[in-house]
Design brief:
Elements: E1 8-12, H1 17-28, E2 32-37, H2 42-48, E3 53-56, H3 67-76, E4 81-84, H4 100-121, E5 134-138, H5 151-170, E6 175-180, H6 190-195, H7 201-212, H8 218-229, H9 233-236, E7 239-242, H10 251-259
Parallel strand pairs: 1-2, 1-4, 2-3, 4-5, 5-6, 6-7
């Protein structure tokens, strides 16, 4: 993370596997790191020795109140980087078969609660950050196909992809972007494994991955986030990056992104095709 000078980084759901990796890398690079956790772990304890500040907050219903939340917002003042890492796959199943209350809760956790917290934290950003404060969300699959059995999770991630584009258009002083990490070996896949065959084809795919599949290395996820920190809004603003498939870090990609404002954004397919009308 040498592209930018030391700053203050907030990791929401920072005790996730990706969150812990980012917290360690950024703390070792001299950044002030503030993270939230739902469940305390040895990883949190180890990173506390590096100066990472932890707060026991889940934010599943948006902003919380009480002493931990008050102390978190005090520690968050002047943030330069804000990363949202919270997410869960459940409920897994066809939309018509899962209880709607569970489906609705997934939208809350994976979409609305993150935006609620963002709304509360935006006034506390460091307005003097050289490239502008940076907000990173994490995406999932489903941009180019229908991921059956995971409708709540997928539509939440699609919503975040569009939201970063909207925010980029509304707030040019802040950099908003979202990344798809690909298959990273993290705890999120436990939901699919526990669901079993009811998860459909993704159950077998997940099981194959744990039996010896080729995971996207955590180091690559951290490297991509570090690359994002050093990029201007004209390159990353409002865009969805695939950590696995995109040539992030390439000067050629940077030139292409600046030349095409629609690149790596949600767009309807087939607009160029013309059909007759009756």
């Amino acid at each position: 993370m040498t592209a930018t000078p030391p700053g203050k980084c907030l990791l929401v759901a920072g005790s996730s596997d990706i969150g812990l990796a980012l917290a360690e890398d950024w703390a070792r690079s001299g950044h002030a790191v503030v993270g939230t956790y739902r469940t305390w772990s040895t990883g949190c304890e180890d990173l506390r020795t590096l100066g990472v500040e932890w707060f026991p907050l889940a934010f599943e219903r948006g902003c919380e109140s009480g002493e931990p939340a008050r102390r978190f917002f005090e520690a968050a003042a002047g943030w330069d980087v804000l990363v949202f890492l919270s997410g869960e796959q459940s409920p897994v199943g066809d939309f018509a078969d899962v209880p709607f209350a569970e489906w609705e809760r997934s939208i809350q956790v994976n979409f609305l609660s993150q935006l609620s917290l963002l709304h509360a934290l935006l006034p506390h950003r460091n307005a003097r950050a050289s490239l502008g404060p940076l907000v990173i969300f994490f995406a999932g699959g489903g941009t180019n196909n229908a991921v059956v059995k995971y409708s709540a999770y997928t539509v939440s991630k699609i919503g975040l992809i569009k939201m970063v584009e909207l925010l980029d258009a509304e707030m040019p002083s802040v950099r908003f972007t979202i990344v798809g990490p690909g298959w990273v070996k993290t705890k999120i896949h436990e939901t699919t494994l526990n669901t079993g065959a009811a998860a459909g084809a993704n159950f077998e795919k997940t099981r194959e991955m744990f039996r010896g599949g080729e995971w996207n290395p955590m180091e690559k996820v951290v490297a991509c986030c570090n690359w994002l920190l050093g990029q201007g809004r004209e390159v990353i603003g409002g865009r969805n990056f695939s950590i696995v498939h995109d040539a992030w870090g390439s000067p050629d990609l940077g030139d292409a992104l600046q030349a095409d404002p629609s690149l790596y954004k949600l767009r309807r397919s087939g607009n160029e095709r013309q059909f007759g009308r009756d």
